[in-house]
Design goal:
By secondary structure, this protein is of the alpha/beta class. 39% of the residues lie in helices and 10% in strands. It is built from 16 helices and 8 strands. The chain has an 8-stranded mixed beta sheet, sandwiched between helices. Strand 5, helix 5 and strand 6 form a beta-alpha-beta unit. Helix 6 crosses helix 7, helix 7 packs across helix 11 and helix 9 crosses helix 11. The protein is globular. The chain starts with 29 loop residues before the first helix and ends with a helix.
């Protein structure tokens, strides 16, 4: 969810590196980034392969990667801040979640970023992890149990058994933070869930919402911007209906001319995905998260769409903001830059994309559609029937559309406690999450001018006042939770 989700840009191949959902790989250096923050140590935890069947896989274990820093920790007393890793390499999230370490410095916390099973280097069966049936141990429940076991054992090892634990996560990782608080309140004292679409991924809400909200981001910059996008897609449709494939190849600088309706469908998906990523990552400064993005990419995209009379060239150049940020590509390969999968918002590339595709075929429901009426994109449907057909062919599984509602409460959350649901109004995932406080301890924090989990990022001079205020609210609530948990757990 990037993601909800994570994307990378075309320079490296990617394994997700396409993270949360689909991009080419990032251009950051771990060593350079770490200089700007705490020194994380990369370690591996011997994790149970199957938590729910005592005879499964010979009761074997696998090595689960995690990052840890005690640079700010008041040893044996300060809280534990635990990031519930999502669909990608854990370094990607650690290096783009500076608020957590800033808060750790304020509150004397130990910080742990745990990598999700089947992503990054945490592959239970190595390169065989994505075979059937080995991939069947990739579930939300197994991932949550991983985190519960890791937290419990590391606290014992580090003499931190009385230190309150707060979990953090963004996008799908934010969903996992909510679920940790629901499922393991004995282990987790509170959760900050940033940009967590826990309602839409449970099949609650309008399947048109996501791409409608992507469109709204661009329309808010300039209504004529969305008109230009619609016009460009309409011209592409007319060329496709005439089967003028050479013209399409020339206008979009494709490596090969399209030759079928399938190729045009793929081109439409690739182009739509570029707008999705720019809307999600519409930060007020340039970033190297899920790709290389300029500051205010939605504004840059609209300027590009309105830069001249050739709408097709403008559309191509706008997509190039995402797919050719380095300018090294001389042509666009339709099937290597973007993979269609069970997540219409993008799965990414490489092994991580396989893992996310499987999750979108089982528990995570991402049946979102564009229709060219409520949004600016070509009609691209993805119904529950489409999902079931694809998933049965690809993974030999039948999705469970209602399972998250059953297992993790759906929208019936009022009896839970100590969860912050933060969302930015620029984020197309926001309206798939909780936007109104549900009780005094289930707090919604809405961030005006905020993109996808902006509040988890480190402080920046370009931050809007809204996110500065949001982080202060979050910090105060977390401090209260830590204090409450100390009081509760006193002998």
């Amino acid at each position: 969810m990037w993601r909800i989700l994570v994307f990378l840009t075309v320079t490296v191949s990617l394994c997700p590196v396409q993270l949360l959902q689909g991009l080419p790989s990032p251009q950051w250096s771990k060593h350079d980034a770490v200089k700007r923050g705490p020194q994380f140590t990369e370690k591996y935890f011997s994790q149970t392969m199957d938590h729910f069947n005592f005879n499964s896989m010979g009761n074997s274990t696998f090595s689960q990667r995690y990052l840890i820093t005690d640079e700010y920790w008041h040893k044996g007393h300060g809280p534990v801040f635990f990031y519930t890793g999502n669909e990608g390499d854990i370094w990607e999230f650690a290096l783009n979640s500076g608020f957590i370490t800033e808060l750790a410095a304020q509150q004397g916390a130990l910080v742990i970023f745990a990598e999700h099973r089947y992503y990054g280097k945490s592959l239970p069966f190595g390169k065989e992890s994505f075979n059937i049936p080995e991939i069947s141990l990739l579930t939300v429940e197994q991932a949550l149990a991983d985190y519960a076991v890791m937290i419990t054992e590391l606290k014992q090892q580090l003499a931190a058994t009385h230190c309150p634990v707060i979990v953090f996560g963004g996008s799908y990782g934010g969903m996992l933070s909510v679920y940790m608080r629901l499922k393991y309140p004995n282990i987790v004292a509170g959760a900050l869930a940033a940009s967590a679409p826990i309602l839409s991924t449970a099949g609650l809400g309008d399947p048109r919402q996501f791409f409608r909200d992507v469109t709204a981001d661009f329309e808010s910059v300039a209504p004529e911007c969305t008109d230009a996008v619609r016009g460009a897609f309409h011209q592409l449709k007319e060329l496709a209906e005439r089967q003028d494939y050479l013209r399409i190849q020339a206008e979009f600088l494709l490596c090969k001319p399209p030759s079928s309706a399938k190729d045009i469908h793929q081109l439409n998906g690739l182009l739509r995905n570029a707008f999705t990523l720019m809307a999600m990552l519409d930060y007020p400064y340039s970033t190297h998260f899920m790709g290389n993005m300029p500051a205010n990419p939605v504004k840059v995209a609209c300027e590009t769409m309105l830069s001249g009379p050739n709408l097709l060239a403008n559309l191509r150049n706008t997509a190039g903001i995402v797919y050719n940020s380095t300018g090294v590509l001389t042509c666009f390969d339709l099937y290597s830059l973007y993979l269609e999968c069970a997540d219409p918002t993008g799965c990414g590339l490489g092994f991580d994309s396989l893992a996310w595709d499987y999750q979108a075929c089982t528990e995570i429901d991402l049946c979102y559609e564009s229709n060219n009426v409520t949004d600016m994109f070509p009609p691209l449907a993805f119904t529950e029937e489409d999902r079931e057909l694809y998933c049965s062919k690809r993974w030999a599984v039948v999705p469970r559309p209602d399972w998250l509602k059953t297992q993790f409460w759906g929208d019936v959350l009022s009896t839970a406690s100590n969860i912050i649901f933060s969302n930015g109004d620029l984020d197309p995932w926001a309206n798939g999450g909780v936007r109104k406080s549900l009780s005094s301890s289930l707090t919604a924090v809405n961030i005006s001018g905020g993109a996808h989990h902006l509040d988890l990022r480190g402080s920046n001079d370009a931050d809007p006042v809204s996110v500065i205020s949001a982080r202060k609210t979050e910090a105060d609530l977390i401090a209260q939770w830590v204090k409450m948990e100390r009081t509760r757990s006193k002998p």
